[in-house]
Automatic annotation (TrEMBL):
GO molecular function: ligand-gated monoatomic ion channel activity
Gene: AVEN_106367_1
GO-annotated biological processes: detection of stimulus involved in sensory perception
Species of origin: Trichonephila inaurata madagascariensis
Protein name: Lig_chan-Glu_bd domain-containing protein
Every Ionotropic glutamate receptor L-glutamate and glycine-binding domain range: 11-75
Amino acid sequence: MVRFYIVIALLQKGLDKNHLQNQNSTSISGVEGEFLKVLSEQLHFTYEVFSPYDRQWGTADWTGNWTGVIGMILRNEVDIGLSHISITEERASVVDFSFPYTILDRTFVTAKPGDGPKMASFTYPFNKNVWILILLLTVIAPLLFRPLMFKKRSLASVFFMIFGSMLKQPIDNSEQPCMQRLIYSSWVGSMTLLYFAYSGILLSYITVPWQKKGIKNIRDLAHALQAGTHKCLAPDGTIDTKLLLNSNLHYYRIIGEYIARNNWVYESSAMSEKLLDDRTVLIGSRSLLHGFFGYDPYVTEYISDDSFGVWNIGIALRKNFCCKEELNFAILRTLSSGLYEKWWKDSAFKSGLD
C-alpha cells in the first residue's frame, strides 16, 4: 500500500486534524476530510497529514519563494496539497494539479441591514424629490388658485383649503363658473391619485418593515470604502488582494488598494459572526461562506450575488506525481456519485445548528 505525505491548510470551519491513537493514524474532519477519506479508500493509499506553519494556501513573495501549501510541495516536503486550492496560472507553473473537483467563486458577505427607523416610516412611500415637489405645490397652489377662484378669501384660508384637499377634504366651489370648476376638478383628481398612491405604499411598508440599504454589489463596496463607512477583510494567505490590485476593473483596484494599505486580513479558521458588524465586510469563497452562514432561506447574513472571479479548484500535486491519472479517475467517480455536493450541504446544515 502506497503512503503519501499530504499537506492541508487547516483554515476552514470544521476542518480539523484528529489523531487516532488506537489505530496509529490521522483523520481529517470536514468536507475535505471526507473527500480525502473516499479517495484513499478507492486508491488504497495511506497518508500522513501536515499543516503549513504559516497557515496559508500559498503565494509568491517578493523573492520568488512560495509560502503555505504550495511552498511545501515545491520543497518536496509533501506529495499532495488538499485544501480548496484554486488553480491559477501562476500556481500551475510551479506545481501540478488534478482534475478540478469544484469551482471557487469569490464574493463577499456583510451583516444583514436592519430595519429602517420606525419614527420616519410615514416618509418612506415617496423619495426626497417627490416630497420636495409636494411641498412646492403646497406653497405655489394657493398663490395660483386665489386669483383664479377665491378672490374674496384671504391667502391663509385658501392655503388651508388647498392643504385640506390634499388630505381628501372637500372644498365648497358651488359659486364658481364652469371653467374654474374644471380646473378645480383636475386638481382634486390629481390629489386623489396622490393620496391613494401614498396610502397603498405606506400599507406595504407597514406590512413588511423597510430594510436599510446595504452593500449589494462590488461597486457599492468600493464606494463604501471610499466613503470610510466600511472596512473590507480578505483571507490571509490567499491571492485575493493581489488579484484585485492587478485587475483591469477600477472598482476592483480600489478595494485591493484599501485592503493592502490597511492590512485588512483575517484567518479563515477564525471566521465567525463576531467578525461581522455594520461596518465590516468579509471576502471569501461562496461555498465556504454558505457553509458557514447557511443557504437560503436559512442564511444568517447577506452574501452578495456579485463575484470577484471564478476559478477551478483542484488537488495540488508535486511535479511528476506517480498516480495522477488514477487520482483523476477517482475524483470523477466521486463527483459523479454526488457525494461532494452532499458533504457541503451536510456541513451547511450542521453550521445552522451551531
